[in-house]
Amino acid sequence: MNNQFAGWLGEKATAWGLSQSLDPRLYRRIDDLIVPDGNGGTTQIDHVIISVFGIFVLEVKNRNGLIVGAPNDSI
Predict the structure, then answer these.
(1) Does the global pTM surpass 0.85?
(2) Closest listed residue to residue 47, CA positions, set 23, 16, 75
(3) Cα–Cα distance measured from residue 26 to residue 66, given in angstroms and rounded to the nearest whole number
(4) What does the angle CA 34 – CA 60 – CA 75 come to, to the nearest 5 degrees?
(5) Residue 53 contacts by C-beta under 8 Å, 6 or more apart in sequence?
(6) pLDDT at position 75
(7) Res 18 pLDDT > 90
(8) 3-state SS string over the chain?
(9) What is the four-CA torsion angle of 32, 64, 55, 34, rounded to 10 degrees?
(10) CB 56 within 8 A of CB 22
(11) Distance between CA atoms of 21 and 66, rounded to whole angstroms?
């Protein structure tokens, strides 16, 4: 399975899982949100969940192994 397809599959699986587990009366889900990146371009956010409990931003990675990072790391 190539990485692009694996990523797409992971995003779709996550969207399905969220749709099955979140009460639509309490949560609003936005998938595949495109926003300005502050440098004249755009960036894509996999899932945003909005509720009275907060705003949750999800970036999905469909990979095996350990994913590490620090708050100030950049791509």
Answers:
(1) no
(2) 16
(3) 32
(4) 70
(5) 26
(6) 61
(7) yes
(8) CCHHHHHHHHHHHHHHHHHHHCCCCCEEEEEEEEEECCCCCEEEEEEEEEECCEEEEECCCCCCCCCCCCCCCCC
(9) -20
(10) no
(11) 26
Q: Are 61 and 14 contacting, i.e. CB atoms less than 8 angstroms apart?
A: no
In the block, tokens 């899982």 appear at 17
Joined together, the tokens standing for residue 39 give: 């440098």
Tokens 């639509």 sit on residue = 24
Nearest-CA neighbor of 11 among 61, 75, 70?
Answer: 61
- pLDDT tens for 43-52 read 999 999 999 9
* C-alpha–C-alpha distance, residues 62 and 55, integer Å: 22
